[in-house]
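G., the chain you wanted modeled:
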Amino acid sequence: MKALHFGAGNIGRGFIGEKLVESGFDLTFSDINEDLVESINFHHKYTIKIIQSDKFQEKIISGIKAINSKNLSVLIPLLSEVNLITTAVGSHVLECIAENIAESVICRVKNRVKNILYIIACENMTRGTSVLKKYVLRFLPVQYHSYLHQYVNFIDSVVDRIIPSMSNVNMESSLLVLVEEFYEWIVDSTQIKGVFPNIIGLKFSNNLISFIERKLFTLNTAHSVTAYLGLFFGYKTVYNAISDNKIRNIVLNAMKESGQVLIKRYNFNHVLHDQYIHTILNRFSNFYLSDNLKRIARFPLKKLNRNERLFKPILGNIEYNFLYKNLSIGVASVLHYCDDQDIESHHIQNLIKKIGLINALIKISGINMNYKLVLSIVEEYYNLIHYKFLNKN
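Predicted structure as tokens:
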């Protein structure tokens, strides 16, 4: 079977590509980075180093090729004949990909292709494949919609694997990827049509939203709190930040606060979820998995949205009358974030100066005015300043 994966970056090579090749797919990567495309086509293989505690296991992923995403004369015909399309490009790129997929659907109709095309977006967002489908339908002329609904199967998924920046290791090859041993790739079984291809390591769930929110409220929440608090206190990496006990305790308790929402909402086993929380802390504490905090802190406006990793669990805690002090500290730390290279962080700081902290908080997040919630975040915002001042003196 043939597969095309959009995005030959770390997740593409270090996770999705690995699993597709292991499963016997004839895999082609599509990327706009011409140097990366040329390197893949020259070597036709790459190495991933899997971190196992304090040692590494090497695995060669071979038999691969790549095309430039801008080369539509090659891309569209290939898209029209593959069995599976996956993505790991970032949510902001999905709309561009959708136009290419729409063109390929037209080709499939003209070529009378009756095989089901499976599409899975492996993005760090809620139901990214469904979002991609909406984009495709927008680009696709209406006379082709019935074909798409019958022969193109969009399946939502959630993926989880830490793949740190290669700047922390001695890079042996431009294609080398360092990955953790832990991974999860779960798809929505209720959306599957026909005979779905076998993919090694893939799991199925008829309640995908519970796994989406488990990852969002736990891993993504913890990553964000670690990043913004770490930067506030002058750290540069996840490993350094989480080694600070005051940050570690806040991150742990923030995950517990978000966890009580998940346990209540989805009837999770509290012992198993507590184990999941501590697994994440251990992952963060591995020196070889350490990532750059500024990379994690990118797009702070998105992270302050009411439907994202900080506010959504807070709103869940309000719904169930639970406490959320440590999640409030996380939000407060984002409001302090300012980096010369981050335009969004400057926008936040300028907005605070222009309309005040409370109004900026409400405007950015989209939350309704909730006196207790706003007071909690404002209090933690000034507590951080006070704590920093006391420790300087």
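Residues 233 and 389 are 11 Å apart (CA to CA).

Shout if anything looks off.
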